[in-house]
Specification:
Elements lengths: L1 H7 L2 H5 L5 H13 L1 H18 L8 H9 L1 H31 L5 H30 L9
Helix pairs in contact: 3-4
Length: 145
Amino acid sequence: MKDCEKYKKLLMGLIDNELTPEEASELNDHLTRCSSCRDEYEQLRDTASKISNISFIQPHEKELRKLWKSPYSRFTRNSGLFLVFTGWISLILYGLYEFFMSKSEATFSKISIAAIFIGFAVLLASVIRDRIIAYKSDPYKEIEK
């Protein structure tokens, strides 16, 4: 039923007491008349009661830092970054190779694309250089964040 779709969206709101009194009253009226929605409501309520009994123990900050600094964590982070950047750079280089070796592209467009990539590389190198210089002279780099 078309009405059922409207009411099914409100079922979790009723379980969590997030509905206005008018919405709750309207939904309860519908649940008394519709067995399909009532069955789904009972299943959701049963599932919500089981989930509410589950507790999550938040690890202490010390354990989180230890995990973040662990060799395995650093290895996976670094290897993931390496793979992403290697793939990205190889796709760009392949695309540039195909573009510049193509006989159908005009020389002007090839020069323009080359200028864009060279400009990007120069800007990237200058930003990296500035960041390295700023890091070396940063008086707050020893402070733990």
